[in-house]
Write a structure and sequence with these properties.
Length: 351
């Protein structure tokens, strides 16, 4: 059994509270409702009250840029609220996709859930071993199927394409454990395998080839402003690297031009990653229960923008009129919540 699967299996077993596999409750939460958690899961102390004013006050985290005028303004940067909850099996992938909704993946249940602007959830599709999610340029959703086997040589993973009704077609195969998906403007994608050292390029027609071959445990990935840089977070490594690749003329990260920007350290277990308009990189430190912000040029030190989360996994900036473009929407691998965390800057559009 691979180390990553062993760790995940032990963690899931230790945190299993006997849930019967049911998905989120129909009233899975209300946006901005700090009272949604029950008595055994108290509301975060920094949650905004339901009647928070549009100008919520000074930021709770240090900022290097003025707060964007596009922000909704009901939360201070660094403030967090539960957006949706009740996912008894935990959730991992997150993306905005068809119909302007938010989508999350439930690996243990093999399901993709659709969340509306109020945080209410409905099942979109069954996808075995589902992990990462990503939107496509033509309004569909890509979902990574991690495969059933624990053997790194068993190429039983797949990437599925889901339409707005949840109908799925196989988009790509030949990757052992597809995890994070970064969409490309031409309809292709980049796919990481964090139990390996490779990031794969998937052409629009589904052809797969290794692109980056020596990245330690690659997981979350994203392009920076102007698609000049490409960032990758490493998960199962002792150093917890965030690596920047320069982007070539073909619009893809150049394997020969790379540098490690930060080493977050042992036990960071870095997971999902997103980038804002200022080339600031946000990454989930899974086991540490925090979201960190670093500069894309490698200067300065990591800044915690949220703590007290339960194994944060993936993160996506809000997209569309119903969601805050200056907030990260964050899943919990071993928890049951989707968090909304204000950061004061807008995210970059995908793909």
């Amino acid at each position: 059994m691979r180390t990553g699967y062993l760790w995940m299996g032990l963690a899931l077993a230790a945190c299993d509270d006997g849930a019967d596999g049911a998905g989120p409750t129909p009233d899975a939460g209300v946006a901005g409702d700090a009272q949604a958690p029950g008595p055994a899961d108290a509301a975060p102390p920094d949650a905004a009250p339901p009647d928070a004013a549009p100008d919520a006050g000074p930021p709770l985290i240090p900022l290097e840029h003025p707060v964007s005028a596009a922000c909704r303004g009901d939360l201070r940067p660094g403030e967090k609220v539960v957006f949706s909850q009740g996912f008894a099996n935990g959730i991992e992938g997150v993306a905005f996709g068809p119909g302007g909704a938010l989508y999350v993946s439930e690996p243990r249940g093999g399901r993709v859930w659709k969340l509306d602007a109020a945080g209410a959830a409905s099942e979109l599709a069954d996808v075995p071993h589902v992990i990462g999610l990503a939107p496509t340029a033509d309004g569909a959703l890509l979902a990574a199927d991690g495969g059933e086997s624990n053997d790194v040589a068993e190429l039983d993973g797949a990437v599925w394409r889901l339409d707005a009704a949840g109908a799925k077609t196989r988009f790509a195969e030949g990757i052992a454990t597809p995890n994070f998906i970064t969409p490309l403007p031409d309809g292709g994608a980049l796919v990481s395998d964090d139990f390996d050292t490779q990031v794969f390029h998937v052409a629009p027609g589904g052809a797969v080839r290794p692109l980056l071959t020596d990245v330690p445990s690659p997981n979350g990935m994203a392009f920076g402003p102007g698609r000049q840089g490409f960032y990758v977070a490493s998960t199962f490594t002792p150093r917890g690297e965030i690596t920047r690749f320069e982007v070539g003329a073909d619009g893809l990260p150049d394997p020969g031009r790379r540098r490690v920007l930060f080493e977050i350290g042992a036990g960071a277990t870095l997971d999902g990653l997103a980038v804002d308009e200022h080339d600031q990189v946000y990454v989930a430190a899974n086991v540490r229960g925090s979201i960190l912000r670093v500069r894309g040029d490698g200067a300065g030190e990591p800044v915690p923008v949220a703590t007290g989360l339960r194994t944060p996994a993936s993160l996506a900036f809000g997209v569309g009129a119903d969601f805050d473009p200056c907030s990260l929407y964050v899943t919990e691998l071993l928890g049951d919540r989707v968090w909304r965390i204000a950061v004061g800057a807008t995210g970059l559009p995908l793909p």
